[in-house]
Amino acid sequence: MTDILKRNNVRVFGKGTKPVVFAHGFGCGQQMWRHIWPTFENDYLIVLFDYVGSGSSDVNAYNKERYNSLSGYAEDVLDICAELGLKDVIFVGHSVSSVIGMLASIKKPEYFDKLVLVGPSPRYINDQDYTGGFEHGDIVELLDTMDSNYIGWANFLGPAIMKNPERPELAAELTDSFCSTDPVIARQFAQVTFLSDNRRDLRHVGRPCLILQCSDDIIAPVSVGHYIHQHLPESKLVIMEATGHCPHLSAPQETISQMQQFLAQD
Amino acid sequence: MVGRLKIEGTGIEELLTVPSRIFYQTHLFPLLAMKGVVSEIFLTLQASDGSRVPVMLNGKREDTGNGMRSICTVSTVWERQKYEKELIASRQQYQKAHEDNQVLKELTARLQDQQQELDRKIVELSRRKQEYLQLGKVLMHDMQEPIRKIGFYFDKVLSGFSQQAGSTSDQMLVKISKSVARLRQLINSAQRFVASEDEGGPVTLLSTEKLIRDATDEFITLTGIDDFELQIEGSVSFEGRGPVFTTLIFELISNAVRFRKKDMPLIISVRSLIVQENSFLLTADKYHYTDHVQIEFGDNGVGFEQRFATYIFGLFNKLESDGDGVGLGLALCEQIVSRHHGKISARSVVGSGSKFTIVLPVVQPKQPV
After folding, report:
1. Domain for residue A64, yes or no?
2. What CATH number does residue A79 fall under?
3. ipTM above 0.85, yes or no
4. B351 to A110, B256, B299, B307, B356: CA distances (angstroms)
């Protein structure tokens, strides 16, 4: 049997019973949420995890067929819900995890109560009547940029890690640097993330959603926030004062208070 | 380089090319915000004339007491970038050579197909085995019991007749005839279950909405029961054997009607959508996500306890609340869905209704020649 909790580096704590599952986006791990969860740990059951291949997950569990689709990532979420016996989850997903959470909630609605989508985008590349913000060439060049940034670590540290299993700090150093120990995994995650198209899935989401849209976010422009709001059956759109793509890091207070308002509604 | 005056007051992102902006938002900023320091990050600046400048960035972020401040230095890496590009290029060449190996690719593809085929065969075999086990159970137990009763009461009746005719022997005769009817029903159902394995005709393109309407019409014509409301949401085209799918929906409708609440109008709601699902059903660590149709069939009936969610799909398995039923309908449904390489599952809450979810491939795998 796969040990899901170890595989996904799952941490469960908090004094409440209602679960809040925090899901990190592309490029990092569960530590992205460290300014957010402390506010909720007295009233909720906090669940943190890393997707396989990210953070401190079990990289050996990475399966390039499974994670060649966001549905494979959605299975990570469903596996964790099943393993922990969660129900009525408040799912908080950043960036690509917003879509992963929506896919999971379509497949197994019984696990979910509400979704908080931080900087979501159902498609990053522009299409005929749709502005995602990027051209295909931009994504290809992003992959090159990632390659350039990983090559130093991969060539220098890669052999060192493989030869020194007794020195986990070498792996930790790489993990700390980019929240992912393997450039091939990061590259595939980037491809799956930025080349995905989940516009058709939006209308099937049957749970209330809060869209936290940053102003001036290059990765998920405001127009994308409006698009999602129009196509999700039950959603609330908040244009935040925070700028950039990571309000949970740059504006935790604003993020928290928007979440609190949404969670207080019934 | 970029003039000092021009960049003063602009956001750091505006100095970057679009891909570097993505990298900044997904990697560099989180790193800076969490660790307070970044080193040797490769980025590309976009000069005002549109030309691109490869740079290495080092930076730190600190609390000034008056808000956060990031201090970054950049230096051009024209030469280093050339060297790294060569490294990347050689790695990519290696990958390309690997991928261009057509023979290897074809072999891999064939292996993939065979693994898929094998997976289907294993599923089919284990299903067959289950069905035979079920049939064995039917023959061993379910069919034996009415026969045993017939024998028992018949003996009694016979010995009763030898003494004197009376009302008790009439009752016994009634029981015998009931058992005979039950036996006939069970045998017919078993026959139908076994026979349906081979029926169904060729695979054609079906539409969920049309199937639901056809099956509903058939149900109303056959039973005369039409006092329920049908809500259909969405329609998906998928491949399957038409007649058996009409049977599938028919059985789900009759199931919903049988378990309706007496004091409330029955509402059946059917939603169809497309999801991505792994087309490997059994083989561990094999994944191939393809379009699947997901049909959610819900009712507002009496429901059942969730612990019976798997049990109800077994042949001749029935819940106590089901008086007249044989326990064939849902077993048939399971058989039909399995034959189409899909899955059916049930969720229910006592008192508020049940939901059956069917997930199966939009395109049926080609039958091996």
Report:
1. yes
2. 3.40.50.1820
3. no
4. 17, 13, 11, 15, 16
